[in-house]
């Protein structure tokens, strides 16, 4: 097939020189396959990246939940420690163990002399807890109701006991 002079002139002539004589799909096949493979690889890598991010998100939420639970447990334990370390609780527990308050202490000076007079600790009377009005009424109530005693249906007007300082 020979080209005529009209085909080689102008825009159409340039296009005919750039294009091969016949349609060639065999030359385009590797390029199309490369583009399809690149797109498929990109999509698969995005899927894997998304899965890894979701897994990290699940781990993060699990760790936050565990942190909250452990924080709550730590606060409960701290409340227990605080209640056990109050002076009255310490004294009560020491008395249960048979401990008694110490007497006057004696100190040793650096030269080995004793300063103060040591005294032996003795078990004094334990401090009595002030009884509540209900406890007093129960211990002093007569065995049999009398005519002067109020009826069991009468209500008490005694206010509930409160601790000092409130």
TrEMBL record:
**Parts of the chain that traverse the membrane:** 31-53
Q: Quote the biased-composition stretches of kind Low complexity, using this chain's numbering.
A: 127-157
> Record's Pfam families?
DivIC
Q: Which UniProt keywords apply?
A: Cell cycle, Cell division, Membrane, Transmembrane, Transmembrane helix
Whether Transmembrane helix counts among this entry's keywords is yes
Q: Which GO terms describe its biological process?
A: cell division
InterPro entries from the UniProt entry: FtsL/DivIC
Q: What is this protein called?
A: Cell division protein FtsB
């Amino acid at each position: 097939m020979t080209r005529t002079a009209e085909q080689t002139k102008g825009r159409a002539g340039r296009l005919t020189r750039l294009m091969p004589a016949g349609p060639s799909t065999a030359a385009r096949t590797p390029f199309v396959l490369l583009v399809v493979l690149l797109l498929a690889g990109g999509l698969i890598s995005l899927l894997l990246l998304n899965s890894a991010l979701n897994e990290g998100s699940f781990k993060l939420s699990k760790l936050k939940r565990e942190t909250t639970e452990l924080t709550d447990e730590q606060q409960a334990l701290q409340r227990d420690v605080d209640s056990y370390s109050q002076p009255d609780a310490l004294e009560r527990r020491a008395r249960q163990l048979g401990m008694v308050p110490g007497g006057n202490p004696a100190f040793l000076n650096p030269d080995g002399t004793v300063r103060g007079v040591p005294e032996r600790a003795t078990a004094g009377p334990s401090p009595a807890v002030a009884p509540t009005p209900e406890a007093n009424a129960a211990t002093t109530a007569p065995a049999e109701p009398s005519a002067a005693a109020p009826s069991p249906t009468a209500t008490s007007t005694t206010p509930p006991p409160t601790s000092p300082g409130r």
